[in-house]
Amino acid sequence: MTSPDQPAPSEPANTSLANRYGAKKRRLSPAARRAIGGVALAAGIGFMAWVSTSNSLSSVSFKDVGYATTDATLAEVDFQVTREPGTAVKCAIKALDSKFAVVGWKVVDIPPSQAEETADGGRTVSQRVAVRTESLSVSGVVDSCWIPGGSDRKM
């Protein structure tokens, strides 16, 4: 007499995380992490050096010193411009009313200076500019300055 065939026991389902989601990802070796960090640091330092030198090579900076409102149609703006000696510069000057609306605008040419004209070798020059206004101004400021010529890039 033969016994009836019994079904083979089923294997238990493997519920490990590796089977469910895949094997763990390989991590970078410590040497590879140091190399990537070193390259990123060198790139950051190089970028900062480039930014700092490119701005200082041909830059123009300005500083508002003061203003005076003569009457409702005229304002005077005092400012200083710093640039390389022998470099001509253009600056846009604006007069503002009490609501910060522009009531006067003028672009002035600042001619190149000789190196011995000022204490810092001709880099900084002081200017006073009269700006015609359409109403009473309460402030006068430099909007921007730039080196005229090929790029006409405002700074």
The first-to-last residue Cα distance is 104 Å
Q: Beta-strand level of the residues, as a percent range? A: 25-35%
Radius of gyration: 35 Å
Query: Which spans of ≥5 residues are poorly predicted at pLDDT below 50?
Result: none
Q: What's the total count of β strands?
A: 6
Largest sheet, strands/sense/barrel: 3 strands, antiparallel
What is the count of DSSP helices, taking H or I runs of 4+ residues? 2
The spatial strand order of the largest sheet comes to: 1-2-5
Instruction: Name the shape in a single word.
Output: elongated
Task: Specify the helix fraction band.
Answer: 10-25%
Structural commentary:
It contains two helices and six strands, in the order H-H-E-E-E-E-E-E. The strands form two sheets. It has a three-stranded antiparallel β-sheet, with no helix packed on it. A hairpin with a 2-residue loop joins strand 1 and strand 2 (74-82). It is α+β, with helices and mostly antiparallel strands. The model has no long low-confidence stretch (mean pLDDT 83). It is elongated and about 125 Å long.
